[in-house]
Amino acid sequence: MSTAVASDDNHEKTGHEKIGPKGSQTLLRGLDILDQVVDGPIALAELSARMGLTRSTTHRLATALIDRGFLIFMPRKGYRLGPKLLHLGFVAQSQVNLIQVARPHIEALAARTGDTVHLGRLDTDRALYLDKISGRRRVEISSRIGDRHPLTSTGLGKALLLDLAPAHWRHLFEDDQARGVPGADYATWEQRMRRYVAAGCAFDLEENEDQIRCVAAPIHDASGRTVAAISVSSAAQYMDEARMATLSADVLATAQRINLALGQEPSRTDE
Q: CA 1 → CA 4, 5, 8, 212, distances in Å?
């Protein structure tokens, strides 16, 4: 039995795939299977032949993809793409659209303020940064596109929570504290959050990064649901209380322009 397995492995490594770390080999095989199924249902025998793998290895990989929703098996027809890919496609499309719609507005905001502007969305219990426009000032902001930051210590993260029921805030706050995220006590944090809700925008008062402050506001889609947030970040020396108050109006106005571009009905004051 062990001899047969060794023979299968040697056949597979000298055939279709490139030699690499074991985990990456499995991942690449799985991705290759998805490529083979793009054109429609395919039977196991044909799939294994196209892949240059044994039937047992192909079946094992396909079963793992079925378990995760990436494939579906149809009796007498074979494997076809599963619902997980449809979901990911919609998510990816919505992200691309959001970035494309927001980009000219956040570029204009960065140009007006001279500061760094971020666009991000909620990603489970973190703020995922989707776009970043660097400012003109010589201020180093450590964030990168694709970074995930705490919700309760970043301005952008707090802006994403403004429409969330306060009952959920404590859980998120305590989770971040357990991960070592610095911050004030919950009572102080909650009091600030309630002020942010009333104002429609949120601040980061050097809670996430030393000497960095920011002003942030949520982005809403046509249904009024929070789908993202934008923020303006700069060094604390450029972000005293007076300037943060002035920036709030600009950030809110920019957020509203993005809301309208996403299909939100204009209010009478917008018309």
A: 5, 7, 11, 62
The answer to whether residues 117 and 247 touch, using CB atoms and an 8 Å cutoff, is: no
Is the distance from CB of 188 to CB of 222 less than 8 angstroms?
Answer: no
Q: Is the pTM of this model over 0.90?
A: no
Positive/negative CA dihedral, 174, 176, 178, 181 = negative
The backbone torsions φ and ψ at residue 147, rounded to the nearest 5 degrees and listed phi first, read -65, 150
pLDDT over 50 at 3, yes or no: no
In Å, what is the CA distance from 26 to each residue of 21, 198, 244? Answer: 9, 51, 50
Residue with tokens 């930051």: 149
Of how many residues is the chain composed?
271
- For residue 270, what pLDDT is reported? 57
Greatest Cα pair distance in the chain: 77
What's the CA angle centered on 175, arms 171 and 179, to 5 degrees? 170
CA dist 167 and 159 (Å) reads 16
